[in-house]
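Let us walk through a complete example step by step. Step one is to write down the protein sequence. Step two is to encode the small molecule, flavin-adenine dinucleotide, as a SMILES string so that its atoms and bonds are unambiguous. Step three, shown after the inputs, is the structure prediction itself.
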Amino acid sequence: MSEAAAVAEVNADVALTGMESGSDSEQTGPAFTLELNQDQKDIRDWVHGFAEGVVRPAAAEWDEREETPWPVIEEAAKIGLYSFEAMGQFWADETGLTLPIANEELFWGDAGIGMAIMGTSLAVAAIFGQGTPEQMGEWIPQCFGTPDDVKLGAFCASEPDAGSDVSGIRTTAKYDEAKDEWVINGQKAWATNGGIANVHVVIASVDRELGSRGHAAFVIPPNTPGCEQGAKVKKHGLRASHTADVHLDDCRVPGACLLGGKEKLDERLARVREGKKAKSQAAMQTFEASRPTVGAQALGIARAAYEYALDYSKERVQFGKPIVENQAIAFALADMKMEIDAARLLVWRAAWMGRTGQTFENAEGSMSKLKAGEVAVWTTERAIQILGGNGYTREFPVERMHRDSKIYTIFEGTSEIQRLVISRAISGVHIK
Ligand SMILES: Cc1cc2nc3c(=O)[nH]c(=O)nc-3n(C[C@H](O)[C@H](O)[C@H](O)COP(=O)(O)OP(=O)(O)OC[C@H]3O[C@@H](n4cnc5c(N)ncnc54)[C@H](O)[C@@H]3O)c2cc1C
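Step three: the predicted structure of the complex.
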């Protein structure tokens, strides 16, 4: 669970420009700025246009249907937004900001549909983070398919008895040397796109005695016998995003499906058995890379609810004046805006740190996700209050936004787990 240890090794200095240092030394680092560059603005506006024109109008329908919005994903694929290339472009921004910016805009449109589009990225992040170049080239495009034949990816770490505590994973992977195949058995829980994905990435134990340090990540290729969807989960929010159990029964995959390869795994296990420190746990690497991005999704929901409530408060007249003229309402809106902006700064900082290889000394990735998730729940609840009775009905979107926001204090590490990680990082004490 050590966030600080899991991420970057390089600790670069932050160069603050525009300040009189009194020194003659040359400026070596990039200038500090919060101004977005033209590429970032273009991508933000592009994603926003899709969120506004396509996602938002479809949001209520797919929430009610509780089904994967394939036509919307196809639309996203047609304009290149749902694609390996777009993900690559978002990720390539060396400031790290484009990925959270794109996520915020998409989830501003709708979080359920946003997750239906972005759920694949968890599997992609695992392949990207742990796979060899050959594995990336083979499997990442298959997570997306093509605009004419759209596919999904699923990342399966959680199990019925292993949620926050990934060391409890019971799914096993045994190597059949004669056939150069891995045989995977177990049950995965709550997998986004589980069972309907083309490519599943599964975390399994190759040595139960080593706990989470004996885990490895495997690609399950499309249509592999023994990999089946279990029960589909009926949810409080994010209802346009498919969540299901995945059963793995003597599921055989080629040796080449072990992400990173067997040689690397054997070396890592040997280090662990000798009592040396393993670099990091397979599942935690994936979570670490994605936490600020998940925070950005929560921000999108919060901003959407805030904007809706602000507009509503100017229109809604009670006691002869718009309700925004009451301090109780206006101050709530002021706090909502301030909290959203504060959360965004944490998200951007963590995204920048991750992309530029800064050391997460104080679990800044966890901070960003924790703050943004809690701000989203709080802001959407405030938005319902500002809309009064209308806010509580399904005729108005803030009710859905509130339901959607709650998951952001639960998945990718609950709020309690984020606090555990942060408190351990700042204290150096193994808080329990
Ligand atoms: C919609 C949805 C989508 C999901 N998508 C995926 C996915 O794609 N892939 C995947 O692998 N998983 C996924 N998950 C699973 C998700 O990551 C887990 O639900 C989450 O990690 C929490 O685990 P849990 O539900 O078992 O809760 P538990 O671990 O049982 O926690 C229950 C409560 O106890 C608290 N708690 C636990 N341990 C401690 C502690 N040490 N100190 C203090 N408090 C503690 C928790 O914070 C929480 O409040 C998804 C879940 C949902 C609901």
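Step four is interpretation. The pocket of flavin-adenine dinucleotide is lined by residues 122, 155-158, 163-164, 190-192, 235, 238, 243, 407, 410-411, 414, 416-417, 420 (CB under 6 Å).
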